[in-house]
Automatic annotation (TrEMBL):
The gene is metX. Substrate binds at R203, D321. Residues 42-326 form the AB hydrolase-1 domain. It comes from Pontibacter populi. The lineage of its organism: Bacteria, Pseudomonadati, Bacteroidota, Cytophagia, Cytophagales. This is Homoserine O-acetyltransferase. Pathway: Amino-acid biosynthesis; L-methionine biosynthesis via de novo pathway; O-acetyl-L-homoserine from L-homoserine: step 1/1.
């Protein structure tokens, strides 16, 4: 069975948290497997900052024949985020009011806006219940926000390497990356490639928050003792910047990093703790022990605030990106979560749901 690519068109005005509007939008989305007769086998995935809707590309170990989410058993859905650059309406899309690309005029979005758009797609697909909503990093923020907005829809939430409110540390990292984009003179232009050089530096900065001292030591340590103008770790940084610039644009990067900054489930809900009282989904909070960007204290805090929730800690040398890499541990933790068993093993801790 293969994944299917689709596009959802919403042709009415869409109001944003800022008070601005979008004159409609489209979302690119991927499905895998079939909805069963009881319509109770839906898994909805929310992707991270630079991801796309095809979860089999970046979480391939979780989805597929014989894997945790086998398409023979599950109907799996993931939409590219609103504002994204993998088929959904974003800054490079044409504004139907001006017939020109939005570029810098694309309105700023929050995670509330983004999950509001996802929810319109969910309704269009007629999915009244979702067995599990799963997301990591920015996708975890969106999943938590959505589970709060629609508490009766999501039966389970798997919240991976994410938080309830973006931290001062995280905002500072994001702003440092946006400073790099602003330093690029082309950012002043309205063109598809505006800020692309700055984006490369932004990605290089971001890598330092996605990885860890240990992962650099393990993979990028200089083999010899000679002085060079291009140390292995230096060329790695340059390469990672080039690689992202080849598949992403600075506008979407800017927009989504600001959506991440504004993430705060407590906004207009009396604060984070009060907001969490409204979470109905059985929830597994997952952290990565070396995560510098979304440190494990953030997921432990959530676990403590949500009675009956489960918690799993993944061990990784990869830092935050461990959520994409440590899929064997993640699979085990989710399986245990589904079985509602109390576990206490070397690689993760978890309490009964
Ligand atoms: C649409 C989407 O892509 S989905 C969303 C974003 N995607 C992801 O996050 C993908 C998830 N994958 C990853 O994060 C990583 O690949 C990991 C964590 C799984 C593996 O990490 P690593 O083994 O360090 O691989 P990483 O991708 O960081 O770097 C490897 C690349 O750097 C290159 N590289 C490694 N060392 C160096 C160096 N010293 N100098 C230059 N290039 C280098 C490799 O040749 C390789 O190139 P390639 O990607 O063109 O094959
Ligand atoms: N590797 C991830 C990191 C952010 O979670 C990405 O590029 O989206």
């Amino acid at each position: 069975m293969s994944t299917q690519q689709h596009t959802f068109h919403y042709q009415q005005e869409f109001s944003l948290e800022s008070g601005l509007t979008l004159p409609g939008f489209q979302l690119a989305y991927t499905t895998y497997g079939q909805l069963n007769r009881k319509r109770d086998n839906v898994i909805w995935v929310c992707h991270a900052l630079t991801g796309n809707s095809d979860f089999t590309e970046w979480w391939s170990s979780l989805f597929g024949e014989g894997k945790l989410y086998d398409p023979e058993d599950w109907f799996i859905v993931c939409a590219n985020t609103l504002g994204g650059c993998y088929g959904s309406t974003g800054p490079l899309s044409v504004n139907p009011n001006t017939l020109q690309p939005y570029f810098h005029s694309f309105p700023q979005l929050t995670n509330r806006d983004i999950v509001g758009a996802f929810d319109l797609l969910r309704q269009e697909l007629g999915l009244q219940q979702v067995h599990t909503l799963i997301g990591g990093s920015l996708g975890g923020q969106q999943a938590l926000e959505w589970a709060l907005q629609k508490p009766d829809v999501f039966e389970r939430l798997v919240h991976v390497a994410s938080n309830a409110r973006h931290s001062a540390w995280g905002i500072a990292f994001n702003e440092s990356q946006r400073m790099a984009i602003r330093q690029d003179p082309s950012w002043a232009n309205d063109s598809e490639t505006a800020g692309q050089q700055g984006l490369k530096t932004a990605r290089a900065i971001a890598m330092l928050s996605y990885r860890h001292y240990t992962s650099y030591e393990l993979t990028q340590q200089e083999p010899g003792n000679s002085i060079t103008d291009n140390y292995r770790a230096a060329s790695y940084q340059v390469y990672q910047g080039e690689k992202l610039a080849g598949r992403f644009n600075a506008y979407t990067y800017w927009l989504l990093s600001k959506a991440m900054d504004s993430h705060n489930i407590g906004r207009n809900r009396g604060g984070v703790e009060k907001a969490l009282h409204h979470l109905k989904a059985k929830t597994l909070f997952v952290g990565v022990d070396t995560d510098l960007l979304f440190p494990v204290e953030e997921q432990r805090f959530l676990h403590e605030q949500v009675p009956g929730s489960a918690f799993a800690l993944l061990r990784s040398n990869y830092g935050h990106d461990g959520f994409l890499v440590e899929t064997d541990q993640l699979t085990k933790a989710i399986r245990k979560f589904y079985q509602s068993e109390t576990i206490n093993e070397l690689y993760y801790e978890q309490q009964t749901v």
